Amino acid sequence: MEEREIKEKMTRIDLRMNHAKIKITSGSFIFEAELCKSTTAEVIIENLPFKGKATLWGEEIYFSIPVFIEEENTSRVILDPGEIGYWPAGQAFCIFFGPTPVSKGKESRAYSAVNVFGKISGDLSNLKNIKAGSDITVTLIQKQ
Predict the structure, then answer these.
(1) Are 44 and 20 in contact (CB under 8 A)?
(2) Domain 3-143 belongs to what topology?
């Protein structure tokens, strides 16, 4: 097996592996997310908690965070609703829950590649109630 193939297998994200849990809070809305094992998830965990102001871009919420993580070879632009990612180009924490201005149909499409590092569990409907400029806090619930 070539070195590149080994590296890709080592950095591949497996969202079925529960690595840690975080809590995302905005006003009275609380969401929990499970994180996968990835470099991005590790850097996020090491730098929690985060506080920011929500920016809305279609059905994506994002806000700047004080970390820089390079684009991983598993990054992508089409995400499943509820997936959370880190956007290297904007140094931002992103939550996807529906179409964005660049989506084709009902897909969740990022402006450019994001490092997917987790997924919100449960009901996503209240994400639509978070307004631009709302305070958002991200904290660690548990690390496994």
Answers:
(1) no
(2) Cyclophilin (2.40.100)
